[in-house]
Amino acid sequence: MIQSIYYQGLKKLLHICLISVFFHSFFTNCDAQYRPSLFFREDWREIAAATPVTQTHVANKKLILGLYGPGCDSIRKSHHDTPADDPYYVWSGLCKGNWIVTLKNNTSYVDLSGYAKIFWRSKQSGLRCLHLVLKLADGTWLVSSQCDDLSRDWRIHEINIMDISWYVLDIRSVIETRPAGNVNLSRVDEIGFTDLMTGGGSDACSRVDWIEVYGKPVDRLN
Question: Which pTM was predicted?
Answer without folding.
Answer: 0.84
